[in-house]
Amino acid sequence: MASSPRLPLLAFLLVLLLVFSAMAEAGGSGRLRPSECQPRCTYRCSATSHKKPCMFFCLKCCKKCLCVPPGTYGNKQVCPCYNNWKTKEGKPKCP
């Protein structure tokens, strides 16, 4: 009966794993299909006055990273690849 005290710990760890898995999936990082990029980028670029360049770079970033941050601005931490891709000058490449 030495393994009995381990059972609650294993159950707790399993629940913790499921919670973290659900959180990662909610972020959507790298989980989009390329066909989902167009509608996500259309919404992402809807609030800017520079729609053509925004769409160009958003689609390029989405196809590489398979992720578009939620909202029309910010929230880039949700998509690390999208957030960390920089231009030659060191500026953010993705809108």
UniProtKB/TrEMBL annotation:
This protein's record includes keyword Signal = yes
Q: Pfam families under this entry?
A: GASA
Superkingdom per UniProt = Eukaryota
- Write out the entry's keywords from A to Z: Signal
Q: Where is the signal peptide?
A: 1-26
- PANTHER family documented for this protein: EXTENSIN, PROLINE-RICH PROTEIN (PTHR23201), GIBBERELLIN-REGULATED PROTEIN 5 (PTHR23201:SF60)
Query: Which family, according to UniProt?
Result: Belongs to the GASA family.
Q: What is this protein called?
A: Protein RSI-1
Originating organism: Colocasia esculenta
